[in-house]
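#onboarding

Welcome to the new folks! Below is a worked example of what a typical request in this channel looks like: someone posts a single protein sequence, and someone else replies with the predicted structure as tokens. Don't worry about understanding the tokens yet, we'll cover that in week two.

Example request:
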Amino acid sequence: MIPRIGIVGAGAIAQGHIDGMRAAGCEVVAVADPFEAARKKMSEKNQIKAFASLGEMRAAEKLDAVHVCVPNTLQTGWSLFPAPAPSPCSWHTTCPSPRHPTRS
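Example response:
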């Protein structure tokens, strides 16, 4: 089975992660980003579907994992988004950098 991956965030860092996941044999199928110009550019460059939100992407695509490519300060909100209702915990979420630091 080839993993189907969704990308959250269409900024500069996302392209390197898309390339890496494809090189590893994954199928990157969609990107979600609230900024239309960014998601459209990423979608066209990589021939993947584009969505304005993670909710839209997960409703439309059968994903095995979501790769979160947003700044550290935004990662917690994206990576703790609930799994699809029909089958909870049916996908994985990865963040390419450490989550937002906490103060001790």
